[in-house]
Amino acid sequence: MKVSWIKSSKDSDSFNLMKNMGFRVVELDDLDEVDDKIKGLIGENYNTFFVTNEVAGFSEDIMKRYCKSGDIRIIITPARRRNDNEK
Q1: Where are the alpha helices (DSSP H) in the chain?
Q2: Residue 86 has what pLDDT?
Q3: 81 pLDDT band (50/70/90 cuts)?
Q4: For position 68, what pLDDT does the model report?
Q5: 14-43: average pLDDT
Q6: How many Å apart are CA 26 and CA 38, to the nearest integer?
Q7: Sheet holding 3-8, edge to edge
Q8: Distance CA 32, CA 38 (A)
Q9: CATH number at residue 37
Q10: Is residue 45 one of the residues assigned to a domain?
Q11: What does the CA dihedral 6, 12, 17, 22 come to, rounded to 10 degrees?
């Protein structure tokens, strides 16, 4: 199983732990490219994706294609937002 995390490049808070641990965290500058990015990662044998709800909102394929697939798993997570007390 190969796992990738996908978020907006403007989202500086989500998936930082995974990135710091050396996992593949994809940061998209243009969220309209999410479907192409997922297709490319599937071509690299990735089959599990964690995407922020912001990114998922830009995908037409997540609901149409991948939710019914037994081979590809997409987990939609809320974007992490720091509260004012965190630095």
Answers
A1: 16-20, 34-43, 53-56, 61
A2: 46
A3: low
A4: 76
A5: 95
A6: 10
A7: 25-28, 3-8, 48-52, 73-77
A8: 12
A9: 3.40.50
A10: yes
A11: 60
